[in-house]
Amino acid sequence: MGKLWDKGYSVDKEVEQYMAAEGYLLDQALVKYDCRASIAHAKMLGKIGMLNKDEVRQLVKALNGIIALDSNGKFSLKPQDEDCHTAIENYLTAKLGDVGRKIHTARSRNDQVQAALRLYYKDELGEVIVLVKKLLISLKSFDGKYGRIGIPGYTHTRKAMPSSVHMWSRAFIESLEDDLTILGAAHSLNDQNPLGTGAGYGVPMAVDREYTAKELGFSKVQGNPIYVQNSRGKFESVIVHALAHLMLDLNKMSTDAIMFSMPEFGYFVMPKELTTGSSIMPHKKNPDVLELVRGNYHVVSSYGCMIDSIIGNLPSGYNADLSLTKGPAMRSISITKRSLSVMALFIGKLAVDKAACKKAMSQELYATNEAYDLVKKGVPFRKAYKEIAKKYSK
To answer: Is 156 part of the annotated catalytic residue set?
Structure first.
């Protein structure tokens, strides 16, 4: 079977391989979403009289068959498939003949790709949100067990003022709750139906875009067809930057846990089953998992920069550069999901050494309290500050 754009000539093999790159591998995750969008599109074509009822039935049955094959690992994409969209249409044509060839009526691969990606991102962002909530449960449980224990607070990596496990836990709980707001905004932005806009300039027939939006569960129709293409990469950027905000919290949480669990601190007790050893030093229990979570923030953040760079300076409308934004977006989602899952596991097993924390609550932590005790007696703050500063400068 040929390419969707086949005009009777062959593309140079090296060029073809360069263009395929890893696209067919990434597209394996999009098979069911393209089929769902194609089912809605077929039903819409039936609604406007471009397909008869039997043709719609055949297409829907065949597309559901592909979804079933894919779920059982029996619809594997190959480099020559170019992408999942081509593989699916070729399958439909081989199975249904001319009926299969009709599925692309009133559709371009541009809006077809966008529809599959939007559905994929919706589901994946939904899963990220669920994982954030699971991490919140772990943090709240940790706070419930150990929140009353005092620990030093730090500025400039030096002891500053009294803090507590509760204050530390709540800092991340509140930040993750804000992250949910950011993720919700990214989800809402992505929740727009691109089908029916063709290659970016509409299609020369009356299609029912509201119908396909409802069939696919999109909250609205994305109106302007040029903007549909311009938003490819833009929406991926918003999603990845939202994930980067989330990964930044995991980065800081990991850094704190690594530091607080160092023997020199000893406030946190790291679960040994979540640590790894050294190939030469028998005593080591290393926090590799936290170091990888910490490092993966930078990976996700760099993917956001990559997408922003790819989409910059492009003219309006579709350009093949935009296809390069799919990989970094999909990889960012995968990294973030795995990081959230492992952090929920880690926090759920993390313990606090009450004795080590109590020992660390040294007198200088209370210097500001002492200054304010004088202020409460009527001493101007600057005089109180200097008086207490003399005490601790000895």
So the answer is: yes
Whether 38 sits among the annotated catalytic residues: the reply is: no
- Give the tokens for residue 166: 């509760």
Which structure tokens are listed for 104?
């692309």
- Count CA within 13 A, CB hemisphere, residue 253: 31
Question: Which member of 156, 279, 283, 362 is catalytic?
Answer: 156
For the record, the structure tokens of 309 come out as: 């760079």
Q: Which of 141, 188, 219, 278 is catalytic?
A: 278
The string of pLDDT tens digits covering residues 5-58 is: 454 656 666 565 655 556 778 999 999 999 999 999 999 999 999 999 999 999
Model confidence at 121: pLDDT above 80 = yes
Residues 6+ apart with CB under 8 A from 210: 221
Q: Report all structural domains of the chain as residue ranges with CATH numbers, in order of start.
A: 13-104 (1.10.275.10), 109-360 (1.20.200.10), 363-392 (no CATH)
Checking if the pLDDT of 269 tops 50, the result is yes
Question: How far, CA to CA in Å, does 178 sit from each of 132, 257, 339?
Answer: 11, 21, 18
